[in-house]
Amino acid sequence: MSVAAPPIAASEDMPEADKRDLWFCWWVLPFFYSFFGLIFVLLTHVMPPPSPHKTDEQITAFFHAHGTTIQIGFAILMVVIGGSGILNGFVAYEMKRMSVTPVFAYTYIATLAVGAIPGCLMCAFSFLVASFRPDRDPHIVAMLYDVALLTFVGSLGCFAAQYLTLGIAILLDKNEIFPKWFAYVSFWNVITELLAAPVFVFKKGPFSWNGAISFWEGTVIFVIYLNCFILLLRKAVQDQRAGEVVQD
Amino acid sequence: MAAETAMSPSARRLPGDVNMWVFVLGDMVFFGAYFVIFMYYRTRQQDMFLLSQRHLSLASGVVNTLFLLASSWFVARAVQAVRDDMHERALRLVAAGGGFGVAFVALKIHEWYALAHHGFKLSTNDFFMFYFALTAIHVFHVLLGMFVLGFVGRELRRADLRRAWVVEAGATYWHMVDLIWVVLFAILYVMR
User: Which of A81, A244, B86, B191 has the most crowded Cβ, counting Cβ within 10 A?
Assistant: First the structure.
């Protein structure tokens, strides 16, 4: 940790103009997640997930019924998905203000960059492919449905690593960029991610991809985490002093 | 905050660290939700749950409960030893607590192996689904606890550290792991 940043020296508040870029990054957060909610909940019906217990014919009917909104929703996603890059960079910047090695920030970016593929994009493309020709053999449409929802709910390793990285960095950090309790809120998500593992086995019950434990409890904890994180990132930008040295 | 309050041991204060209490209380709420969901499914298929329960080894469950209770007792004694500035003794007590934690995990793995050998797995029925998933997530907490106790041990070995609140925070977490197991043991092995 020889490259760790020195503790923040108290000095006068940074002039507001110097933080314009950081405030831009912060405002991407509420916009990005509002779009995320609009797309995944209202338009494409991925959240809350439809049942894994449907027959092939019911799945084909699902794509006939929601094909248009799926196409509109995921077309919007293809545009706004770039916002996740801005957010990862922003969080990584705040992590580099910590007294820990920047390896934590790089790990954070890497886990989410890889995680976005199964956790978001594979689902979008599978639903788009299914809606593109919904008159295909129902077996094939059903496979696309399974691919979409298994990857969306079951892609847990990268996200567990992300929450663990963020939490450990916060606990080790001496610059108090984020409060320590938030590290533990982050750790809760590690546990709920691990409990999504049984979705590959069950087609109904609490551990299926729309189950009370594998989906609902994890989602409730994620929403608590996300709201805390948005507010704490706002405070981190507010509290940054002028002349603070941030690690390369 | 906790470090400041630790300066005045005579004053009434929260043991350990308020941030750890956020984690522990939150985690207990979430485990509480798992237990409620378990009870919901159990009520709907009570006969099947009772029949499946007979395949669990009550003896293993009892021994594992004793392991964790003993472990918690050693860790609680370690907290007392630290408060009396007996750091060598505290380190030995934490090591004993960790030893019982390892024994718990070893017996649990043996129990899983024996059940799997008899053909019981996650997808056998709803009882075994809950049994394997809930005990696995608890073992994950125990393994995390090994890491926490290791961190406490490092704190005790270094004369420049030895902060009582760190030892208390570690003990807070470890007691939660114990408490959750006692409830799991009751609802999985014992409840008729």
Answer: A81
8 A C-beta contact, residue A59 and residue A145: yes
The rounded distance, in Å, linking the Cα atoms of B16 and B165 is: 4
**Residue that has been written with the tokens 């409730």 in this structure:** A220
B-chain residue closest to A213, CA distance: B34
Contact (Cβ atoms closer than 8 angstroms) between residue A101 and residue A4: yes
B54 phi and psi angles, rounded to 5 deg: -60, -25
B22: nearest CB among A181, A192, A195: A181
Helix axes A180-194 and A157-172, enclosed angle (nearest 10): 160
User: Residue A5 in 3-state DSSP?
Assistant: coil
Q: Is the Cβ–Cβ distance between A221 and A215 less than 8 Å? A: no
Per DSSP, A45 falls in state: -
Query: How many residue pairs bridge chain A and chain B with CB atoms within 8 Å of each other?
Result: 56
Backbone φ, ψ for residue A241 (5° rounding): -95, 160
What ipTM does this complex have? 0.83
pLDDT category of residue B17 using cuts at 50, 70 and 90? confident
Q: Is A184 on the interface with B (CB under 8 A)?
A: yes
- Determine whether the interchain pair B137/A191 forms a contact, defined as Cβ–Cβ distance below 8 Å: yes
Q: Is B44 helix (H, G, I), strand (E, B) or coil?
A: helix
Interface of B with A in 107-136 (CB under 8 A): 122-123, 126, 129-130, 133
Say what the pLDDT of residue A18 is. Answer: 78
Long-range contact set of residues A113-119: C-beta below 8 Å, sequence gap at least 24: A113/A88, A114/A158, A115/A155, A115/A158, A115/A159, A115/A162, A116/A81, A116/A84, A118/A151, A118/A152, A118/A154, A118/A155, A118/A158, A119/A151, A119/A152, A119/A155, A119/A158, A119/A159
Residue type, A4: A
Q: How far is CA B124 from CA A65, B31, B110, in A?
A: 35, 23, 19
Inter-chain residue contact B33 with A195, CB threshold 8 Å:
no
Angstrom distance (rounded) from CA A149 to CA A155: 10
Mean pLDDT (chain B, rounded): 91
Cα separation, A45 vs A33, whole angstroms: 16
User: In this predicted structure, what is the pLDDT of residue A15?
Assistant: 60
Q: For the stretch B164-185, what's the b/e string if a residue is b when 16 or more beta carbons lie within 10 angstroms of its beta carbon?
A: bbbbbbbbbbbbbbbebbebbb
Q: Where are the alpha helices (DSSP H) in B11-161?
A: 18-44, 46-53, 58-83, 87-117, 126-157
Token representation of residue B14: 């929260």
Is residue A13 scored above 70 in pLDDT? no
Going A109 to A115 to A121 to A124, the CA torsion angle's sign is negative
> Contact A97/A177 with Cβ under 8 angstroms?
yes
